[in-house]
Amino acid sequence: MIGVAGAGAFGTALAVAFAREGLPVRLWGRDPGLATRRESPRLPGVTLPPRIEVVETVSDLAQNGPVLLAMPMQALREFLAAEGQPLLASDLVACCKGIDLTTLQGPAEVIEAAGARGARAVLTGPSFAADIARGLPTALTLACAGPQAQAIQVALSTATLRIYRTEDVVGAELGGALKNVIAIAAGVVIGAGLGDSARAALVTRGYAEMGRFALALGARAETLAGLSGLGDLLLTCTSAQSRNFAHGVALGAGRVPPQATVEGVATARAAVRLAGARGIDMPVAAMVARLVAGEIGVAEAVKALMSRPLKQE
Ligand SMILES: NC(=O)C1=CN([C@@H]2O[C@H](COP(=O)(O)OP(=O)(O)OC[C@H]3O[C@@H](n4cnc5c(N)ncnc54)[C@H](OP(=O)(O)O)[C@@H]3O)[C@@H](O)[C@H]2O)C=CC1
Ligand SMILES: O=C(CO)COP(=O)(O)O
Q1: Which of 42, 214, 230, 267 is spaced 20 to 30 A from 31 at the CA atom?
Q2: How many structural domains comprise the chain?
Q3: How far is the centre of ligand 1, averaged over its atoms, from the C-alpha of 312 (Å)?
Q4: What is the residue range of 284's domain?
Q5: Contact 127 CB / ligand 2 (< 6 Å)
Q6: Is 311 part of any domain?
Q7: Is 146 near ligand 1, meaning CB less than 6 Å away?
Q8: Residue 313 lies in a domain
Q9: Could you confirm whether 311 is annotated as catalytic?
Q10: What residue owns the CA closest to ligand 1's atom 5?
Q11: Spatial distance between the Cα atoms of 130 and 288, rounded to a whole number of angstroms
């Protein structure tokens, strides 16, 4: 049995993918109408197949199998504190991408701090919920340092979800978190009409600072070059489907961004704090943090990035 907590776009899409494979799935969301409506407003047009059992209480998810935590990063700590007690003996797999703004912890550390006794894993990598729900081929990374890693990898793999495994939890988490920050910046470039050349430069320099930051925090370089880093960066910086990219496009064009879960906003602030404390240079993230806070405008951000002291690549 696979349990999914959080019936937003990603949790719903994953539940649908598991059910399509014939796997027993239980889905819990805080939306009381889900059991009868059988459609998440966060993933419109996708009807839950009968095999997905929508459960009323979180404790119903704690069966013999992993439980996926599919809520926004800034909600994970609060969810575990308020509802997580029955899940603490299960293998927990965070599906969120970000850094907790209060504790500056990644998802696995947040799960550990909540008192989890099973695996503390992270599922990340380039994957839009809508693509997963449609059954399009997707490759993801399961990051887990515990002995349960391979069993979880096998349990979550389907004909359309190909799951790779790594023990580098910090690297996988930071790649997934930071790519959203760079995607906002890439969106700003496109929204402001600065062109594809500028976007390529921004994404490349963004990738350099992702690596600098992640390696300083203990990640492996090859993880940043994998699905959870470069793979997700490519997807998110080039697709209009991305909410982070769309947020940036709106900012760049001088429009009010659409209401959505945009993880890069909080992650930029958290990354700047962590980097500042360690003396790590993160010019793109710093600029995104100031832009989304409304402290500077696009023209000023571009000028600041372009006029930095010349250096070796
Ligand atoms: N969508 C995608 O394509 C992908 C998303 N992700 C990641 O998955 C995570 C979730 O994103 P996504 O599903 O898209 O977001 P959505 O905005 O679609 O849904 C978020 C869900 O989390 C629920 N939620 C919010 N706060 C809490 C809480 N405190 N307790 C319980 N549930 C809560 C929301 O409930 P309610 O509706 O009641 O507000 C909603 O169902 C993010 O970190 C994102 O980066 C990863 C890969 C792909
Ligand atoms: O993480 C994602 C794709 O891998 C989803 O990106 P957005 O949150 O920007 O929509």
Answers
A1: 267
A2: 2
A3: 40
A4: 175-306
A5: yes
A6: no
A7: no
A8: no
A9: no
A10: 10
A11: 27
Is the minimum distance from the CB of 79 to ligand 2 under 6 angstroms?
no
pLDDT digits (tens, 9 = 90+) for 158-206: 999 999 999 999 999 999 999 999 999 999 999 999 999 999 999 999 9
Name the closest-CA residue to atom 34, ligand 1. 8
Q: Ligand 2 centre and the CA of 239: distance in Å?
A: 9
For residue 95, the ligand 1 atom closest to its alpha carbon is: 8
Return the CATH number at 109: 3.40.50.720
Are 6 and 108 part of one and the same domain?
yes
User: Is 10 flagged in the annotation as binding?
Assistant: yes
Residue 40 annotated as lining a ligand binding site: no
What predicted TM-score, i.e. pTM, was given to this entire model? Answer: 0.98
Query: Would you say 251 and 292 are in contact if contact means Cβ atoms under 8 Å apart?
Result: yes
Single out the residue in 143, 167, 191 at which a domain terminates. 167
Tokens of 13: 């899409």
Residues 17 and 94 in one domain: yes
CATH number for the domain that contains residue 209:
1.10.1040.10
Do 144 and 9 lie in one domain? The reply is: yes
Q: pLDDT tens across 209-267, in order? A: 999 999 999 999 999 999 999 999 999 999 999 999 999 999 999 999 999 999 999 99
